[in-house]
Design brief:
2 domains; alpha/beta; Rossmann fold; Helicase, Ruva Protein, domain 3; 37% helix; two-stranded antiparallel ribbon
Length: 309
């Protein structure tokens, strides 16, 4: 594999990114190794872990191009699998933190990643990992996320990893729809609000099922999220906003006033007064509020609750 500075490597602009229109860095010379690794180590994909391994080189080039990884970037990868994407990322980044919950994949990963000393393998559940303690700290994220992890991970990462500026994620189409859902739609919920508060969805494209082994029974989407600038982020403590959002959508069949009263253990009358002060009716439902309105509700409601008003 040629490095960015060697003859034959991709041209880069002053920022260190690949020049638009050129092959993505790290894509050249990659081989489809997933099937070979599965056979070599007798690995059977585990359905309970949502394992669908990447077997297509072309998607690696797409991911590397969309990630816009720079030479000094530190990548966070969730679901390293057999290490095909991990190795590609290691070829263009300063460091890669690769998380994999299935320790039985360790021998295959070590073979795939031989010659990549800039990869740290973490065999643990990403949802239980001390993300803030990762050293060096991640600046971008590229992952093939299992369905059960996708939503919770994105919420946790956006709240806890303020240094990650860009996400390039392969997720089930249902999850992608929830990320980009607008208020008032069926898919709109906690994940939609969180993504809307912290990022902008800059690109989404459908993926062929044939790029995975085994082929999943559902469609997948490649989603690119770009973190908003500091001045665009909510000024309210994220944990407080999250508490309100989760309470609001925890009982979707209820009105927002009833859901917040129950979920936050506050007087319904207080909630109604807060909603009224924001021009919202007492019978409005959570799915009607824009992300920014949840921040306003959180700021006022939790302040009132703390002072015992």
């Amino acid at each position: 594999m040629t490095s960015p500075g060697e003859p034959g490597g991709p041209r880069r602009g002053a920022s260190g990114r690949a020049t638009p229109g050129e092959p993505a860095p790290g894509a050249t010379g990659l081989r489809q190794t997933s099937l070979a690794r599965l056979a070599e180590f007798g690995i059977e994909p585990k359905r309970d872990l949502g394992q669908n391994f990447l077997i297509d080189d072309n998607i690696l080039g797409v991911i590397l191009g969309q990630l816009e990884c720079r030479r000094d970037d530190v990548v966070l990868e969730v679901g390293a699998g057999l290490g095909v994407l991990t190795a590609a990322l290691a070829g263009v980044a300063r460091h890669v933190h690769a998380f994999e919950v299935d320790r039985s994949l360790q021998p295959a990963l070590e073979v795939t990643l031989k010659g990549h000393p800039n990869v740290s393998l973490h065999f643990e559940d990403i949802l239980k990992a001390p993300l803030e303690g990762l050293d060096p700290a991640p600046t971008v994220c590229a992952s093939n996320l299992p369905y059960s992890v996708a939503g919770p991970f994105v919420i946790e990462a956006l709240q806890r990893l303020s240094g990650v500026r860009r996400y390039c994620l392969m997720v089930q189409r249902e999850v992608a729809d929830r990320m980009a859902a607008a208020p008032g739609t069926k898919a709109y919920g906690t994940l939609s609000v969180w993504v809307g508060l912290y990022t902008r969805v800059v690109r989404a494209r459908q993926l062929s099922r044939s790029i995975f082994y085994p082929q999943p029974h559902v469609d997948s989407t490649l989603v690119v999220l770009e973190r908003l600038g500091q001045h665009e982020l909510p000024a309210v403590e994220p944990a407080l906003v999250r508490e309100v959002v989760q309470a609001a959508f925890g009982q979707r069949r209820k009105t927002l006033a009833n859901a917040l009263s129950s979920g936050l253990e506050v007087s319904r009358q207080w909630v109604v007064e807060v909603l009224g002060s924001l021009g919202l009716s007492s019978d409005v439902r959570a799915e009607r509020l824009k992300p920014a309105e949840f921040v306003q509700v959180a700021e006022r409601l939790l302040r009132w609750r703390d002072v015992g008003n």
